[in-house]
Structures are given as structure tokens and as C-alpha cells.
């Protein structure tokens, strides 16, 4: 996928899959040195429409972009002479996808016939099906970088889901055998619901909260159902909120490394040497960090969830990864009620300043820090041992963040 011609130009004809094609588009954008705002301006100067939010989503995913978006992006990146090559490669991949779909016996969601879906993508991967259907856009979980990774850092990141989802999200509709089997499943579900839930619709009390995290306070209007019981500024100041606990105010916020206050914690893609990639928390210029919006959700025991809201990717809560090549990184999961304490953080005041430390609740003596140089774009946020007071300022400051609205 990274094959180049003798002239040093990227070769879109070398792309074998839509994912490889988009990866080459990301490289084209990176090589141009232009920000998303600048790309939007360049396109407008040429009479093209290329909204920066759209191109950011195009480069996050691994679905095939629409032809007009490919043309506008290639032209804005200064490769107008190669636009026909990019379009030819795109059409080849689109035709291959259409051929594969022709043999499918099942009927997928709206747009899965190869027609162009919303948000600049081919319908098969970029569109959402009708309500109640389970489409590929819900399905694809983030692929599975430590020191050996290449960090893209830009928001070239998300796959069609962009975040961790359940395997159930990837199931497609099958033929009549599956339909017959589903009737039995429905019967079992009805019986299970009668057993598990009393007439008031609430689950029976067991007295065992297990590993589900702390009891939380007042609801958050507009948040996901999973995170809806977490505190917002209105809840924190209500008469029933109880005494205030130390920590930053819940609600819309920015998290900025104290040693590079012009950068913000947001989403970015990292890639391992094996080719695996994942969307995790990285630092990027604050002007390019939204979407997603960052919200702090605070429980009544003082712990926080860090929630990202994205117009396309929906809601995700930062989750500490425990294993694999991406161990200790923070990945946004759509499930904001994951079991255990991997999504819970203590936010404590750092010594001698206005900064804060992010301390994962599930790991004692650990803090969130930025791996890399202070001004390194795309440097990854990782969980690492907290620096003690005797550590150098360079080491300790990478674990301190400015947190607040605006």
C-alpha cells in the first residue's frame, strides 16, 4: 500500500482494499502539510466543497470515500495532475466491492447496495441501516502501539465504528435458517425477562454491585444512556447534590498538557509494526481537536469518566487498555458502562500549580502522561508510574494537565 513510483509520487493504483486507499489519502494529506482548515480553504479557492469535518471523518475511517470528495481532497493537496489516477483506483475498488455484493443472498441495510451513503462514504460501510437493523457501521471495532508504533497523531483514525464495540454489532442478516433460530431466541428472551425483572420493570436487588463501579449522581441531559447518571454542572450545583468534592467541574471541557498548552487531548490513530491500528487518546493542536467534544462525568464518590461526543462516531468513554500492543493506552469505547474500573479516573490537583493529574482508579500509583516530546503532534497518552517529587520537571510535567472549559 505504500508503494511509490520512481518519481516519488504516491501510487493509488497500488491500493488493494478501501482501507489501503484511505491510508494513501492520509499520507497525501500529511505530505501536503496542510491542516483540515487549510484544506477546506484550498478547496473553496478551486470551487470545490470540502468541509474540514467531512474530510476528517473520511480519513478516520477505512470505507471508500465518494468520488467527488476524492477529487476535491487530491486537488486541495496540490496533486491535481494525479486526480484521474486516484479516481481510477477508487472506481476499481468500488467495482470490486459491487461484484462481491452481487453474490450476497441477504438484503442489507439501506445503502448497502453500493450506493453512496452519508458522510462521504460508500453505503456499504458508511451508512446506517434502518432503525433496529444491525449494520456494518455499528460493527467494526477498532483494530488492535507501544514504543515501536508509528503514531499518526492526526485524526486519520477512526474505522467505521472508530471505537470498541461488541462482536454482536458485526452480525449480518442471514437466510431463513437464522430466522427460524431467532424465533426460539425470542421465546427464551421473553422467559428470561419475566424471570429477571419484576412487574415494575426494575431488576431484582441482589446486594452485590460487583465490579460495576460507584453509585453515580444526577443525570446528564443529552448524554448517552450508559453515562446518563453521571453528574453535570447543573447537577453539581443542585440542592440535592451534597457537599462539593475536590476536582474540576463536570461538563464540557478541554484537557491540555501543561507543557504544551496549545495542544489538547483528543483522538488519533496509532499503528503497530504489524499493521494493526487503533484510535486512542493523543495530543493535537486544540484548533483541530474538535470533534470530538470532551465531557467530564463525575460520580458521587469523586471519580470521573472522560466522555467524547462525536457527530458521527457518537459517544465514547476513555478506557484503559490492559493487554496487547496497545496496553496502557486510552481507547474510546461506545459502551460507557463497561464492567470494572477501567473507565474511572481520579483527577487530583498537581503539586505547586493549577494543573491536575489523571489517575486511573483501577491501578494504584499510576498516572496518565504523554509519551513523547512536549510539542510532538500525535504523541500518545499512556498510563505510567506517577513521577515522584524528586523526578525531573520534564518527567513530572508530562503527567500534568490543564482541565477546564474553553
Automatic annotation (TrEMBL):
Compositional bias per record (Basic and acidic residues), positions renumbered to this chain: 156-170
Entries under SUPFAM superfamilies matching the protein: Ricin B-like lectins
Sections of the chain in a coiled coil: none
TM region positions: 177-197
Pfam families attached to this UniProt entry: HTH_31
Composition bias, Low complexity: 124-147, 218-229
InterPro entries found in the cross-reference section: Cro/C1-type_HTH, Ricin_B-like_lectins
Region feature (Disordered): 96-171, 202-255
CDD domains for this protein: beta-trefoil_Ricin-like (cd00161), HTH_XRE (cd00093)
Keywords on record: Membrane, Transmembrane, Transmembrane helix
UniProt entry tagged with the keyword Transmembrane helix: yes
Protein name listed in UniProt: Helix-turn-helix domain-containing protein
Source species: Streptomyces griseicoloratus
